[in-house]
């Protein structure tokens, strides 16, 4: 087990290093000069060259990459071209919005998807199964940002129950902050819940006919107990796989939803950096998102071993 984790950690670090190189090369290929964007079209060539030297843009590509990645490894993510402040501070500030938003969306998605998927599997081809199937099809087809607009029209504009957008900050009170995040969290969660519901239903349905579930029923355990105590735990591997992918999407894929609700999160920061050609911010934010995906995949693989004894025996 320890050797497996060590090998996976080594693979994770190599993958992160290769990913950082690809991100740096992709950012370098973007059209436009950050110095020219900052100074405007009326800047003189001498002023432009001076700013390029100040930002280190006149250095060869390998030296710029080594300078950036060595800074990242030391916790120095550089200074934003646009804001003139350390990028690390910007990311931490925006994560105070994005991480709670993603956590709320993950919780809502799980609370919806797992019970619906299990009940649909228990009552296959009945009314609840058909209703859950309809919810899944509609939820998968509806984009999160469009759902967010509908939620604003219904709960903010028409009913006036929720704020239409913006974020008051955690210093204004936890209740107000969570209220501002609720609608965007629901908009993010429902499409993901639709996918996870279908996966849960299929996984549980496949397990219901296994011998150990029939044995549990034969020993007098009720249908609900057989499903929740035996069938669902045995179905967790595909559910965890999809959940791991969704967790990273809910953090990294919140760009449109954060813009719809005018939330100062990490996705909105990435959008602003792209529009302002703030390359150093884009590099660091994209690297954070990529690292999150890689680390989550690592955690998902460890979760496989924890929930499935067969995989533990195979790895041993």
TrEMBL record:
<keyword id="KW-1003">Cell membrane</keyword>
<comment type="similarity">
    <text>Belongs to the binding-protein-dependent transport system permease family.</text>
</comment>
<keyword id="KW-0813">Transport</keyword>
<dbReference type="InterPro" id="IPR045621">
    <property type="entry name" value="BPD_transp_1_N"/>
</dbReference>
<keyword id="KW-0472">Membrane</keyword>
<feature type="domain" description="ABC transmembrane type-1">
    <location>
        <begin position="95"/>
        <end position="304"/>
    </location>
</feature>
<feature type="transmembrane region" description="Helical">
    <location>
        <begin position="285"/>
        <end position="307"/>
    </location>
</feature>
<dbReference type="Pfam" id="PF19300">
    <property type="entry name" value="BPD_transp_1_N"/>
</dbReference>
<protein>
    <submittedName>
        <fullName>Peptide/nickel transport system permease protein</fullName>
    </submittedName>
</protein>
<keyword id="KW-1133">Transmembrane helix</keyword>
<keyword id="KW-0812">Transmembrane</keyword>
<dbReference type="InterPro" id="IPR035906">
    <property type="entry name" value="MetI-like_sf"/>
</dbReference>
<feature type="transmembrane region" description="Helical">
    <location>
        <begin position="236"/>
        <end position="257"/>
    </location>
</feature>
<feature type="transmembrane region" description="Helical">
    <location>
        <begin position="95"/>
        <end position="118"/>
    </location>
</feature>
<feature type="transmembrane region" description="Helical">
    <location>
        <begin position="176"/>
        <end position="196"/>
    </location>
</feature>
<dbReference type="InterPro" id="IPR000515">
    <property type="entry name" value="MetI-like"/>
</dbReference>
<dbReference type="Pfam" id="PF00528">
    <property type="entry name" value="BPD_transp_1"/>
</dbReference>
<feature type="transmembrane region" description="Helical">
    <location>
        <begin position="130"/>
        <end position="156"/>
    </location>
</feature>
């Amino acid at each position: 087990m320890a050797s497996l984790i060590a090998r996976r950690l080594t693979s994770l670090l190599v993958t992160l290093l290769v990913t950082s190189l690809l991100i740096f090369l992709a950012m370098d290929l973007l059209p436009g000069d950050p110095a020219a964007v900052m100074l405007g079209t009326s800047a003189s060539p001498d002023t432009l060259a001076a700013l390029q030297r100040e930002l280190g843009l006149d250095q060869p590509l390998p030296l710029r990459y080594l300078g950036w990645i060595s800074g990242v490894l030391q916790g120095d993510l550089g200074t934003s071209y646009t804001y003139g402040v350390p990028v690390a501070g910007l990311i931490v500030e925006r994560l105070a919005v994005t991480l709670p938003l993603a956590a709320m969306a993950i919780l809502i998605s799980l609370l919806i998807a797992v019970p619906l998927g299990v009940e649909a599997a228990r009552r296959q081809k009945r009314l609840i199964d058909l209703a859950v199937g309809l919810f899944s099809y509609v939820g998968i087809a509806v984009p999160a940002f469009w759902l967010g607009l509908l939620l604003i029209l219904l709960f903010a504009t028409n009913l006036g129950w929720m704020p239409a957008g913006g974020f008051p900050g955690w210093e204004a009170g936890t209740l107000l902050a969570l209220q501002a995040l609720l609608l965007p969290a629901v908009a993010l969660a429902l499409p993901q819940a639709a996918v996870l519901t279908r996966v849960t239903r299929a996984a549980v349905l496949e397990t219901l006919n296994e011998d150990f579930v029939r044995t549990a029923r034969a020993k007098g355990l009720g249908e609900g107990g057989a499903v929740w105590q035996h069938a669902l735990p045995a179905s967790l591997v595909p559910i965890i796989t999809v959940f791991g992918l969704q967790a990273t999407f809910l953090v990294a894929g919140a760009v449109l939803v954060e813009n719809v609700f005018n939330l100062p999160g990490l996705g909105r920061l990435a959008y602003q950096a792209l529009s302002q050609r703030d390359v150093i911010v884009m590099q660091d934010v994209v690297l954070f998102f990529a690292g999150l995906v890689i680390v989550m995949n690592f955690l998902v693989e460890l979760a496989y071993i924890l929930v499935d004894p067969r995989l533990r025996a195979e790895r041993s």
